């Protein structure tokens, strides 16, 4: 097979169907940009989970005098020193516990003022209304239920709260957004495949005389099909290159510069450039193989070779 002939046929085919080729490039670029974005979103969620789950605490809030009057869990009165000592001793015996930190009412009041000092409620609170608590860091954040079972309902304990539950709601939202992006990506891929098949069909129809002559002179099926497959592959590769550019630009302007989320949201551990660069070969390979395979199967059905 002469490479020069194949390359010239690719150029002719792309110029003949310029509008449809442009549509293929745009649809492939958008669908693969969404594909890469969904992969990066999954990496980001997993990175955030690993970062935050390692920092979450289980909090055991102890009854105070106000709770003894209003909370059924504290019906037996405010926590006593003996009860606090027993709770601490039991916590230290548990194998799932890594560290235990005690927070007094004064410390709780100080932290509340630091975080919510501007709220109207802050001015009416006093330290004796705050709850003492034990903040427990677990060796495995998934073992929260062990603490809850052991201390929920015990005398002097108002409640056992797991910060992981709050994070789970956030991660469920992020995962939902990620699945929505994947659904749109799948729709765009279907559109791209339909455009590729249609473009190949139109190109094959417009060159039916040339392909007929090639069949008469004994050209092989692959020799006739190769320019059409290559056209689709080139258009897809251009789209894939644009998708890679979109991801790089988005990472640069959204996280590092422009919106600069890495500076504004210091509490979030954003994925690095290595994660983005690792996805680019997959996107380029998909952009090359997906149109080529679509063209190959379209030609088997619509081009009699």
TrEMBL record:
<dbReference type="InterPro" id="IPR040690">
    <property type="entry name" value="FtsX_ECD"/>
</dbReference>
<feature type="domain" description="ABC3 transporter permease C-terminal">
    <location>
        <begin position="183"/>
        <end position="301"/>
    </location>
</feature>
<feature type="transmembrane region" description="Helical">
    <location>
        <begin position="236"/>
        <end position="255"/>
    </location>
</feature>
<feature type="transmembrane region" description="Helical">
    <location>
        <begin position="276"/>
        <end position="299"/>
    </location>
</feature>
<keyword id="KW-0132">Cell division</keyword>
<comment type="similarity">
    <text>Belongs to the ABC-4 integral membrane protein family. FtsX subfamily.</text>
</comment>
<keyword id="KW-0812">Transmembrane</keyword>
<dbReference type="Pfam" id="PF02687">
    <property type="entry name" value="FtsX"/>
</dbReference>
<feature type="transmembrane region" description="Helical">
    <location>
        <begin position="179"/>
        <end position="200"/>
    </location>
</feature>
<dbReference type="InterPro" id="IPR003838">
    <property type="entry name" value="ABC3_permease_C"/>
</dbReference>
<feature type="domain" description="FtsX extracellular">
    <location>
        <begin position="56"/>
        <end position="160"/>
    </location>
</feature>
<feature type="transmembrane region" description="Helical">
    <location>
        <begin position="21"/>
        <end position="41"/>
    </location>
</feature>
<keyword id="KW-0131">Cell cycle</keyword>
<comment type="subunit">
    <text>Forms a membrane-associated complex with FtsE.</text>
</comment>
<keyword id="KW-1003">Cell membrane</keyword>
<comment type="function">
    <text>Part of the ABC transporter FtsEX involved in cellular division.</text>
</comment>
<dbReference type="InterPro" id="IPR047929">
    <property type="entry name" value="FtsX_actino"/>
</dbReference>
<keyword id="KW-0472">Membrane</keyword>
<dbReference type="Pfam" id="PF18075">
    <property type="entry name" value="FtsX_ECD"/>
</dbReference>
<protein>
    <recommendedName>
        <fullName>Cell division protein FtsX</fullName>
    </recommendedName>
</protein>
<dbReference type="InterPro" id="IPR004513">
    <property type="entry name" value="FtsX"/>
</dbReference>
<keyword id="KW-1133">Transmembrane helix</keyword>
């Amino acid at each position: 097979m002469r490479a020069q002939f194949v390359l010239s046929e690719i150029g002719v085919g792309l110029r003949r169907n310029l509008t449809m080729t442009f549509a293929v490039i745009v649809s492939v670029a958008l669908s693969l940009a969404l594909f890469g974005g969904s992969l990066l979103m999954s990496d980001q969620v997993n990175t955030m989970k690993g970062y935050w789950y390692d920092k979450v605490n289980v909090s055991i809030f102890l009854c105070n005098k106000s709770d003894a009057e209003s909370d059924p869990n504290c019906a037996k009165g405010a926590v006593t020193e003996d009860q606090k000592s027993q709770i601490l001793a039991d916590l230290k015996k548990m194998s799932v516990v890594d560290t235990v930190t005690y927070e007094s009412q004064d410390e709780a009041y100080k932290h509340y003022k630091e975080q919510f000092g501007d709220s109207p409620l802050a001015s009416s609170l006093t330290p004796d209304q705050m709850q003492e608590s034990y903040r427990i860091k677990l060796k495995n954040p998934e073992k929260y239920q062990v603490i809850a079972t052991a201390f929920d309902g015990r005398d002097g304990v108002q409640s056992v709260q797991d910060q992981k539950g709050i994070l789970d709601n956030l991660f469920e939202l992020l995962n939902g957004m990620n699945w929505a992006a994947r659904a749109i990506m799948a729709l765009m891929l279907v559109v791209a495949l339909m455009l590729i098949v249609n473009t190949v069909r139109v190109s094959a129809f417009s060159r039916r005389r040339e392909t007929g002559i090639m069949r008469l002179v004994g050209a092989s099926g692959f020799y006739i099909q190769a320019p059409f497959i290559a056209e689709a592959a080139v258009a897809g590769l251009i789209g894939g290159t644009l998708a890679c550019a979109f991801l790089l630009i988005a990472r640069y302007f959204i996280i590092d510069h422009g919106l600069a989320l890495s500076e504004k949201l210091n509490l979030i551990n954003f994925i690095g450039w290595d994660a983005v660069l690792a996805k680019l070969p997959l996107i380029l390979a998909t952009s090359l193989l997906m149109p080529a395979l679509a063209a190959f199967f379209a030609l088997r059905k619509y081009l009699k070779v």
